[in-house]
Request: fold
Amino acid sequence: MSAAEDWGLALRGSHLAAAIDRITEPWSNAIIRAAFLGARQFEMFQQALDIPRQTLSLRLRGLVEMGLLRRHQYQTQPVREEYRLTSLGKDLYGNVLTSWLWDRRWGDPHQLMPKKLVHRRCSHACTPLLLCPHCTEPLSLDRMQPVLAASAMPVALRTERNRRWRKPPSTGGPTLERDILAVIDDRWSLLLVAAATLGLSRYDEFAQALAISSAVLAQRLQRLCLLDVLRSQPDPDDARRARYLLAPAGTALFPYLLTLSAWGQALANAPDTIAWVHSPCGQTTRGQVACSHCRQTLLPQEVVRPAAPTKTKLND
Ligand SMILES: [Zn+2]
Ligand SMILES: [Zn+2]
Reply:
């Protein structure tokens, strides 16, 4: 087997892939974010996201079935229900924070997420940081080494689900706006970025690693290049071919992928197939999302937003 196949098998059987399979339905991430920003009732989600009512209904039901939201009856006459995050849903907080961080640095300016966060525990404005719990240094891709875990067993090839490529909700106009939802709402895009973090860069390597059809692969690579998450350059070994390397915005998705992979652990019933070793300390870790000021782990109940978030990007 080639290295691309080895990594591909490991990636497809990883906790990250398990997590990606749960929350890459378009709108799911946006709904989870809105829930963390305080939306509970159907109308609140609808207003915040400007999502078609039928789609919202379907997605909320899906998120309840997946165990990320639960229905809560808050009124009896007439019966009214709201949606609350379950503990599995709340465990996505670190992941929501890393997506917020990416959007703040790399996304287009108008977005759903608050501009500023304050850590109640230390009373300081904070930026979430993904820190190594062993040496407390921030984790970045250039200082991490992926390792195939001994438990990496070949997994059955996933058949591509019959999922049509839909335009992500944030991409309204003719120009391609960039926010993290444009990447993370699409399973193949996220798996491609993950494959790139493992060092794969050639079309054939991606095709082998992900067992993806060439039409889908070509479309996703083109889109990720348009978003400037990947950049293509001629292959030094064969100038007729291209290599697809992570652009800075792509490299910056690494903390997001690590937090997602940590979340995926709760969904998996086997050890992870890929481990990440932090080069400075030599320890295996997926990091902890911490406050930039006091370096304590950020918990949802301890983070406040000083200004009300813009309710919807469509209202501005
Ligand atoms: Zn470390
Ligand atoms: Zn703090």
